[in-house]
Amino acid sequence: YSQKLISFKRKDMKDNIALIGFMGSGKTTVGKLLAKTMDMKFVDIDKVIEAQEKKSINDIFQKQGQTYFRDLEREVISQESLKNDCVIATGGGSILDNENIKRLKETSFIVFLNASIECLYLRLKDNSTRPILNGVEDKKKLIEELLEKRKFLYQISADYIIDINEYTNIYETVDRIKEAYIIS
Ligand code: S3P
Fold first, then answer.
1. What are phi and psi of 144, to 5 degrees?
2. Pocket residues for ligand 1 (CB within 6 Å)?
3. For residues 39 and 79, is the Cβ–Cβ distance under 8 A?
4. Residue 125, C-beta contacts closer than 8 angstroms, at least 6 positions apart
5. What is the pTM of this model?
6. What is the pLDDT of residues 44-92, one digit of tens each?
7. Which of 43, 68, 135, 167 is most buried, most CB within 10 Å of its CB?
């Protein structure tokens, strides 16, 4: 299944593929498989931040606050987006910062994983690794509100948008992204 990068990569193509989308849209899962399939490296921005700080995202939010996290996120995106042949999974809030979008656009083909509310809610309802959603009574409502505020940013940042629901097959998703990237 894996296809050597050299067989499809043209000089005029963007170096990386960046995945954007809401928490729970599958950026990490899809990104790992996509990278493997396309013989590219996988970079998870949240994981780089956690390794650098030696703390979980939850701990960083709790101890240093969201502004501190966003500053780190901006630094790490700017540094990681300069790499080559990477699939980059970004954090769901990274598009809130113009500079992040600009940096990613310079080097990456940007794909928005547009997961449905139902799909997001199913994946996030019992998850406690997202500080923004922790301790909230009506998680579904908050997801809807946040998505409402962010959707436009995901859309205008993207070179390619892929709709995802709870039945979407991950191999199909990966194939479609691969195709879109190759013809980009
Ligand atoms: C956030 C999304 C998270 C993580 C942090 C903030 C957000 O990443 O960066 O909890 O604001 O949407 P995932 O999208 O990988 O969950």
1. -60, -45
2. 23, 27, 46, 57, 91-93, 130-132
3. no
4. 139, 140
5. 0.96
6. 999 999 999 999 999 999 999 999 999 999 999 999 999 999 999 999 9
7. 43
